[in-house]
Write a structure and sequence with these properties.
The chain is mainly α. The protein contains six helices and two strands. A two-stranded antiparallel sheet has the order 1-2. Strand 1 and strand 2 form a beta hairpin.
């Protein structure tokens, strides 16, 4: 069964990191929308925003993801935890799929290799922040710490 640390002491740092990733994605998306406005949705042109190649569809998706990540980072509950885990997986899967079709007509988001690399890095960062920003009661956190420090003795006591 997976173990997610509860009430990790560095949780605020992870939330800020996820918020900064969300802010970058939002700024990239807004810049990309302004740059590609009027182009076809899935254009494969030579439009670059903040060092990444984009088209209108990818820019609009980035605006949506940026807003979602900023909302998740600003919440104190586990909503941000689940949003970061989900967004991390989405970014990783998307980057791998887009890398597979990079030089084909199926590259509908107009990715370049730099976009793939940045998407993978953001996916890993979001997945990492999602692993450590779970919130729980103090009793739940204490139980997790107790089991982590004495797993063998606790297992025999049950």
């Amino acid at each position: 069964m997976p173990h997610f640390p509860v009430n990790h002491p560095a949780r605020p740092v992870y939330r800020v990191l996820a918020g900064l990733v969300g802010l970058y994605i939002l700024v990239f998306g807004v810049w990309g929308v302004a740059l590609t406005a009027g182009d076809p949705l899935f254009d494969r042109g030579d439009n670059w925003a903040l060092g990444l190649r984009t088209n209108l569809a990818f820019s609009l998706a980035s605006v949506a993801f940026g807003i979602v990540l900023i909302i998740g980072a600003s919440r104190r509950g586990n909503l941000g935890h689940y949003m970061n885990l989900t967004a991390g997986v989405v970014f990783l899967v998307t980057s791998i799929l887009m890398m597979a079709v990079l030089q084909t007509e199926a590259n509908f988001l107009n990715f370049s290799m730099s976009t793939v690399i940045v998407s993978m890095l953001f996916g890993l960062l979001l997945l990492g922040t999602g692993l450590y920003d779970k919130v729980g009661t103090d009793e739940h956190a204490e139980e997790e710490r107790r089991l982590r420090h004495h797993p063998v003795s606790e297992a025999h006591g049950r």
